[in-house]
Structure formats: structure tokens, C-alpha cells
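Lab notebook, bench 4. Continuing the backlog of folding jobs that were queued last week. Each job is logged with the same field layout so the records can be merged later without manual cleanup. Today's entry covers Acyl-CoA synthetase (AMP-forming)/AMP-acid ligase II, a 958-residue chain. Filled in by technician R.K.

JOB TYPE: sequence-to-structure
TARGET: Acyl-CoA synthetase (AMP-forming)/AMP-acid ligase II
LENGTH: 958
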Amino acid sequence: MSYSAGPFDWSTLDLWSRRHPSAPAILALSNRPPLLWGGLPGCIAAIADRLKEAGVAANARIALSMPPGAEAATVCLAAMRTGIAVPLNPELTVSETASALERLRPHILVYRAGLPGGAERIAHELGVPTLAVEWSAQDIAGWPRLAPASGAALPVAEDDTLAAPDGTRMILQTSGTTAQPKLVPLTEENLFAAAAALIESLALTERDRALNLLPQFHIGGLWDLVGAPLLSGGSVICGGTFSRAALAAGCALSPSWVQLVPSMIRSVLETPTLEMASTLRLLRSVSAPLPPALKQEAEARLGLPVVEIYGMTETAGVIASNPLAPSQQRPGSVGLRAGVGIVLLRPSGEPAGPGEEGEVVVRGRQVSPGYLAASAGDAVAFSTEGFHTGDLGRMDADGHLWLQGRLKDLINRGGEMVSPAEIEAALLSLDGVADAAAFAVPHPTLGEEIEAAIVLAGDGGDFAGSDAALAALRPILGHGRVPARLHIIDALPRTSGGKLQRSRLAARFSLASEPDAAAEPVKPAQSWPQRPLARWIAEIWASVLRKEVMGGDEDFFQSGGTSLQAAQTAAIIQDRYPDYILYVSSVYEAPTPVLQAAFLTAHYPEMVARIIGAQFHGCSASEAPVTEEVRAYFRGAIADPLPSVPRGSAPNPPAVFILSPPRSGSTLLRAMLAGHPGLFAPPELYLLSHSDLASRRAWYGPAHASQLEGLPRALMGAEGCDADTAAALVAEMEKVGTSMPEIYHRLQSAIGERMLVDKTPFYGVHPGVLAACETTFDGAFYVHLSRHPYGMIRSFDQARLGQLWWPRLAGPQAGATCPLSSRQLAELIWEHVHHNVTGFLDSIPAARRIHVRYEDLVDQPEATCRRLCACLGIAFDPAMLEPLGDPSRRMTDGLRPGSRMIGDPKFHAHRGIDRESARRWKQDYDEDFLSDATWALADALGHGERLGKAEERIVFEV
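JOB STATUS: finished
OUTPUT FIELD FOLLOWS
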């Protein structure tokens, strides 16, 4: 027979007492007689009566200093029935106990003598009355003997600054990874709702028996493993402090479920002779992230489902819980919501969509009313939206939640925010790593640097030292996320509840301290690489980093390099070889001179031949065609950066959107439009494709951050500020979560009567982004720019644009290397973007859209510009025909003197409006290779010319 999961109250215990009085309710180890259900209500009442005799009021704070066990359980329940239970850590030192009692100001202390903190002596010094409890191994489990109180409980003052809300039955301190734990009041409503959620999540019945080996001053040991088992009519084994011996003794009493933290699970698996109770039906993992490898090992060796949950003190326990059946669980997820409402909020405060990262905010009856005596910074965690957990997470469409780390733990490495959870997951994926933690240490130029500590499993596998582990880590993590140093230690510092204490690691391994000579062997002095190309690269990098020597295997970023310095190295090479376009992302993809040499050899063989003075013999012209299988793969690889369309309070004024694939002449067209006094045409903004600036930054990451310079350049042009001010404005908007409609509104307000032109080829990739143009603006205009597919493919290939576009398409979770050829990728992008744009524009009134062919733009520029002006309702201006004029006004310069603009880095090397540029593809290809689908779309757009019938098959200068 089972009991429904709530609603519960204290009378539920009486119900179960009447229903099966002879069944055990609370058990202890060492063959002590159990407390039967028939005696449980009387036991709790007897303890409560003694408290009332001491004058304890309903809102009085009852401090409990007791070791974990059956008596701690019943005394806490009795304290909750009488007043407000305030459990203390029994292992506190004398000074810690004094600090806790001074802060909590209890009205009475219930204690067991002999604990290290000497709580009774400190209470006496503070004038707090005490009540001693005692028991022996022969006593019934959970039924202590109580001495008379040393005096009447202190009265509750009317101006008590720690006064808790009505109905509060427990005050807990948060896990204590900081110097000053927060005080969390939990009401009867919170506690009973949380118990109901736990019972439902585990399908508990009166036949279930919990094994409690957790500390009984945290919610897990106090309520998960006492309140919930008893309210379900079952029983609990109070086994005291966790040890392998205690676990074995507890298993002898036939538990059906046990709750442990991951470090305890690991200890269990290290037991030479592992024997778990055959009665166990599940193991519940709490308090800290459970590494997937540890979960798999535990399930395989124990033969039990391991149910990872997510909970907090502030929610009286469970927030989310995995399904019981392993087949219904999702790797790495903490499960589905349990009794609460969960919403993920973007920095802007708007709900995040499925798969999108946001802060976990919890609402419902389980949520505490709010911290007691909270600072202003802590108090804001509780708002009308719910409880802001401070955890970053993402949720899929089915409601499964994944945690990405803590907001406060993010590492700001040179302006790039890095989540320690990402690094830890990568470390734990390595064979031989049992536990891992990433943390920040101060750095003189980056602000913060990433370091990590690991605990090896067994003999550590292949990791004889930290260098071997770092080498294994580099292929997994994106560059700029690999720890600068990796420390091998015996154990990570954790609280008694299993919470990681990063601050202790940061203090121990600060870069300001001297490395441990035993742990960190002295590395040999570096020497220049032997191979000419790697040496050439190392010399450039060393000059930027101001190093005397740079070795072939030295990492650019671990040598102190910043994103700005990475851009400088790319610019130096670009200046020396202006015929080639080198992107800063190459430094992230290949961050050592040896790796960079291999990268350049693979992607820029002609340039490498010129660098080392060798003869270039050309590349193979054969290419695999775009098949339906290739097309399906491409479409499946595209990630959506905009799960939901953000909306402003009212549509913004009209804007102009240039919609085209890359390398279609959009930079030329933008520069021409920028010459008109009625238009404001900055470089690519990349705004509509993301919900806010923070998600945009995360999408592009450090390797492609330079592609986001269009917005600061637009702010410089619109508001008249310098580059540093514009960058600071963008950083502030990223921090506060300014929405994209708000940013557009700011730009449009600053430019006055001029019409904003947004030229961002990426918009055409996603129909949802195109739809956002209509919802964000009132009557937007659209310029559909097309170029012959061969012309676009040729230009895309020469610019090595796949280095930028594949990560942009596949998203931050994908690798940097595209499995498609450059020609395949270019053709697929051309077809995909034009397919989306033509479909979108079918629904737009003809008066607000115009189709422009690149070939017409360069062959008949004035006529084309006049057509554009007529569509936009503005007069033609001859300055539109001088795209190279006034780079500052047209924003065809970079952010800073000498830097390049984004879009077409070689724009100023062109000859302005060059009609020959539309025909150069005819010299490069000997036979047609486009797919039928691409040709069908090309014919519809007026680009039907095939190679076999190409006019003027002549050779042009390149």
C-alpha cells in the first residue's frame, strides 16, 4: 500500500503510527532497539514537552549541537514542533562555535556533552540556557534522556533582528564555502512541499527504508533522509558519520535507498570487497555535480540506478530529479523539475529558450521566504520572479535541466568569461582523473588566469605529471580555456556536505606564490624551433609577447597572450603577405608555433611556399559534388542561435537590411549606401541573430570575437565616441543584458533622421532571424543581393572564409574544423541563404523589397543605386558611386588606426567599383559542378550562365 505524495502536515506521522504501530520508524547501528512507529509520536511529544517546560516559545530559536544519529533526528523534529530548530555542525572548533552562537543568538541550546566545539560552555558565557541530552547503546534508537534545563529559555525580543517569518520551523546555514554562510528560514509549507516532491520523485512508499549517512545540520541529512522517509510511512536508518564500515553496517539493516555525495560514492567504489544490500533499489546522488564516468561505474558495479538530483537549502531540498529508470535519464542532466517551477533567465531578464543558457530561477511552495539579516547583495536573490539560484543552466524542450556552473565562479580571462564547469567536465573525461576543479588566480595582464587541480584515480593511468594531463586536455577544450597550470593533489577541499571550496584552491595556488618544487618540476629553458616556418612564426609571436625566445611547443595564450595580441600577430602576417586573408581565429585553433606552422601549411600552402622560399606546385582541382546526403548533413549541423525572438515594447523605426550570402558584394554595397547623407551603414552588427549581447558573445567566443567589432564601430559613428568608450559601452550592455531591440533603439535615436542599414550575411541562415526583422522594426526595407554562385564560391574559397563561417553555423559546441570542402560549404551557404531569403520576401509587400544582382551593381552602378533610392524613398546622391571615399564616415576603417574593418578585409585593396570582379570566376573553373538544386535557384535569380556557355572566356589578372 502506498501513500500519496501530500499534502502533508504533522498529523501524517500520527496516521502512520496508527496504521502500523509495530513497524520500525527509526533504526540505529550497533543492534540498538529501533523506535517503532507506535512510539514515534510519543517520543517527539516528550522531547517537545521538556522544551516547553523550559519556556521555549513558538518563534524561539533552538540551537542543536549533537552528533549525527537517531537522537539528532528526533530532537530536531521535536524542536520543529515546539519552536525553530537551528542545527549546528558538531565538528566546529571552539572559535567557530562561538562565532555561530553569537550570530544566531539562540534562545536555548540543546546539546550532547563532549563535542569539540564546547557549545555548552560558550552558551553559558553568552547567557544562553542549555538543555543536555544523553543516551547509551542499550537505549531505544532516537529516544534520549533529557536533563532539566539550566534555566528558562530567553524571551523573544520584539525588535529581534533575526525574527523569522511566521511558520518558520528551521533555520539552516548555507554550505559555508564562503566566510559568512547565509541564514535560510524554512517554513512548514516549504518543508512539507519539499518532502512531497522527494517522495513523488523516488516513488517512496511505507515499504521503503532510507540509509542516512549524511551530516544532520544540512537539509539532506535533516529532511531528505528523516522527514521524507517518515512522512511516506517508511523508515530511516540513522547511521551517523559516513564511513565504509558504517555503510556496511547500515546495509545489514535492509535499506531500500541510500543518499550519498559523489565523493562518498567514489569511496564506496574503492572498497576492495564491495557488498551492498540486496534490498537497495536506488542510490541518490546529491550536493555536488556527479561526473558521468563515476555514475556509469557506480551503476555498473553496484547494479543500481543512480539518481542524480539538484537541490539547495533555499528550496528545502530538491529542485530537479532524474527519472528512476536509467533509460529515461539524459547524460549529464540533473533531471526534471520536482515540485517547483523552473525558469532560465537571460541577463536581460527574459526567459531563455530551449537549449539556451540562463540563470536558474525557482518558484513554488518549496522556496524559502528569504535570507535572515541579509546584505543588500544577498537579498536580491529572492524577487517576484522567484529564487535566483546563481546557477547557470540550460533546459531542453522536454524539461531536462543541465547545470553549467555558478555565475560567481566564472573566470574572467582577458575579458572572456570561462565556466569552470566546462573545464572540469573535460578533465573528468580523461582516463585516470578521479576528481577535478578549475579556479581563477590573479594575472598581471589578463586579470585572471585559469588553473586547475586534479585527483588521480589509482595509479593515475598515463599521467605521470601535469604536463601529460594538459597535453591530453588541449584537443578537448577550446584554446584560451586550457589551464595555465595543472596541480596534482591528493584531495579537493570540500565542505562536509560535499561542496567544492574553490577559494581555498585559489589561495593555495595563486600565481603570486612560489610553485611547489616537488609538484612542479622545473622545465628546461626554451629554444627557438628548428624548422624554418615554425621559427618564422615564433619570432613574430615573441616580438608581440615581448619574449626573448619562444619555443615551438609554447602556447601563445599560456605565455600571457591576449586576444588583442593574437589579432596583432595575424595583422603582422597579413601586412607582410597582403594577398592572403589570415584570421585571428587561427591563433586559437593552433596556439603554438609548431601547430601554427601545420595550420598555415594546410590552409595557405601558396603563402607558406613564399615564406620559406619553396616552389608551390598547386592544389588538386578535383572536388566532391554537393549530394543530397551532403546537403542533409549541412542542414543538420546548423545550430540555432535564437531559440525565441526578443520583442521590444514597441517596434523600432524602419531600417534597411541587406540580405545575402557572404562574398556577394555586400561590403561594397554597404560602403556605397554609407555615402548617402540619409543613410547610416555600419559594418556587420550581428544583433538580430541573438537574444542579447551576452549570448552573442558566448556564441562567437574568444576565437571569433573580432567579428563583433561592427557594433562598437557603429557606436563610434553614431555617438561620436572613441574606440575605448565604445568597447566599454558594449561591455556594459553585455553585463546588464541589454536586449537587441533596445540596442537598435539606441543606435536609431543617435543617428536622428538617417535610416539604419544592417548588412549582416548571417541573418539569412535562419528563418527565425529573418522573421525578427519584421517584429523588431515597423516597415523595414529589404535589399536581396545575389551574385553568381561561381563568383561567390571563388571569393569564399580565396578568403578561406570557412574558418569563420563553419564555427558560426555549427555553434560554439562544434569543432573548429569543417568536414566539408571549401567549395561544398560555399555552395551550400549560397543555396541555403537564398532559399531562406526568397521564401521570407514572398510575404513582404513589393514596395519594401528589391532584388539587386552584384553583376548589375558593378556594371551599372548609377542605375542600380537609383533603383535602390527609389525603393527607399530617398533621392540619389552621386557620393554613393565613390565607395572608397571618406573611410571614417563610411565606417570602412577599423576600430583603431591601422586596424582592418570586418566584412571584406581587402576592401581597400580593390579598385572601387570594379566591373571585372563579376567575371573573374570564368577563368578559374573548367567545368560546371553545381548541384541541380543550386542551379534551379540560380536560374530563378538571374544567374543561369554556365561554364560551357560562359561569355568572354578570357584570363584576367588576379
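OBSERVATION: Residues 341-402 form a domain with the Luciferase; domain 3 fold (CATH 2.30.38.10).
SIGNED: R.K.
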